[in-house]
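I am sending you the entry underneath: sequence plus fold tokens. Let me know what the token row says about the fold:
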Amino acid sequence: METNSKTLSFSDALFHLLVMMLNLIPGVLSMPVPTDIPMCTASEPAQYSLTFTGKWTPAAFPKQYPIYRPPAQWSNLIGVTHSSDYHMWQSNEFASNGMRDFAEKGEAWTIMKEVETAGEQIQSVYGILSAPAVVGGTGQMSTQFEVFARHSYLSFVVRIVPSPDWFVGADSIDLCDGDHWKDKVTLELFPYDAGTDSGFTFSSPNFETIPQDRIMQITSSFPSHPANSFFYPRLKHLPPIAKVTLTKIKKTNQIISLPLEPTQSNLLPTGNEIEEKMINTPLDCEVSPWSPWGLCKGKCGDSGVQHRTRYVIMHPANNGAACPLLEEERKCSPDNCL
């Protein structure tokens, strides 16, 4: 009787194993969607407009603000609509080769091939979207795209120009809320480091990071180095450097027009397009270390005077701390007194 019971339990286990394997067979063609992520059950697709607004101003980011060769600007926007099992990029993960090329040089060829491969192999990418570059730190670009219940997520990247490998973007923004689509989503964007170049400033020469680091958000205190262009130790948080607004397009009988080609007029905001209050980030004066004390000058028998100096590295801005004295003197005994 005991042997019989063991045989039955073994048969039951084998049966359950076969059932589990049969359930996994369809997953060979398409990766299963994690069960802990809410499923989108919207019955119809939705169309959205995307508006990117640069907020990279000399007032908000006064330290080493790029004025020329090249001046502050934004690359074109590259994005994808996809399912929950795909990531174009992720914070605290390693950048792909395509992401590295885009963050360092603004080249999109490799990242587009990666997106295409993901769409063919795991069918997780539905569409690719792009928007024209912004020719200043404060301009706008826009585009339109479509999402489905199976592909309800949006990811995108925009390169910060100039920079070593810095960018802004969003990873897997879900536009679906149960059985309906969200009407509007606003995202404040902050700078990220792709982890492939070790430059500290906007105009740093190419300096490959070996071994490669993970993608990390840049903050007012990270990287913790005074030479870093985003290092503002007086701030708890950096102000947002850009903003993206996603707006669901209401259905009409009209044909949706494609976004305009980039021009100076349609990239510069007018009227009340930028509602936020102007941000003025205080920048404290930075000075060099003191020079060595100079020669002691004076008459024999009397006390002499010697001087030392330092110079301004960074002038203050937006009510930042003023520069300290740049020259000091002290009494001394004259050198080589005759």
About this structure: Residues 286-332 form a domain with the TSP-1 type 1 repeat fold (CATH 2.20.100.10). Helices lie at 2-24, 97-105, 109-121, 264-267. The longest strand covers residues 73-82. The CA atoms of residues 87 and 172 lie 7 Å apart.
